[in-house]
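Suppose a colleague, Dr. K., hands you the sequence of a protein chain of 281 amino acids and asks what its three-dimensional shape might be. Before reaching for any lab equipment, you can write down a predicted structure in token form. Begin with the sequence itself:
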Amino acid sequence: MTFANAEAAEFWAGMAPTWRELEDQLDEVAGPPGRWAMERLGLKPGDCVLDLGCGTGVTTVALAGAVGPEGRVVGLDIAEEMLQAGRDRASRGGIKNVEFVHGDTQVHDFGRVVFDAAFSRFGVMFFADPEAAFANVHRFLRPGGRMSFVCWQSGVQNEWMLIPGAAALAALGATPPMPDPDQPGPFAFADPERVSSILEKAGFRSIAIDQRNDMVVTEEDQIPEVARTSSRVGMVRELLRDADDATVRRVLGAIEDAMRARLEGGQVQATRGVNLVSAVA
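The predicted structure, expressed as tokens, is then:
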């Protein structure tokens, strides 16, 4: 099996067990934006849909419901363990019109399959060559086929990630990382102009990018759980990769303190900023 994104494949293979364990907590943040992006597709019964970076199949199963039993959904992901979770989910729900495929969006060959639509919930920001990846998606969309995906705005517009990250850096006395904004990562598609340029070069037209900003709300009694979750994904996970138990506890305490400092009326409100992207093949 060919992977152009070998580094991403290795990362997500290692991340899969944690992602599966924290699925419900992570879905509380990613779920609403995913639904907004899905609504923009205007799916109808009988459509054939490609779910890019489908992970554990939450969105794949939702798409299957939208296209009905006469439709078909293919979930594509670079991590086999994520896909197995999706297969288990579909089996438990008795869902027959889905297929989960282990592959790399940038190079995967679907053969004779032609899709009516392509979708992704935060699954497209990690391509080594995003233009090549989207050109490959374009190749398997019918003329006039729709694509809709959601990606993160910058870290500044996403306090739900920024607050734990800043608290962890302060607790560790670490220097904030300064990644290249064009490199693969959660904020790689924060710039709408860059996204539009990539999609145009990949062959898409009628590109629309809407920025949506709202709040992620955490109740006071949820703060310890949210702190633990934030310590096991993203930048904080990387900071704590080789940390001892005492350091982990210190960082967790710092994250909880930072969240409690923002309590108002028993709640912590943190911004969530996403780009809703749609285009036509």
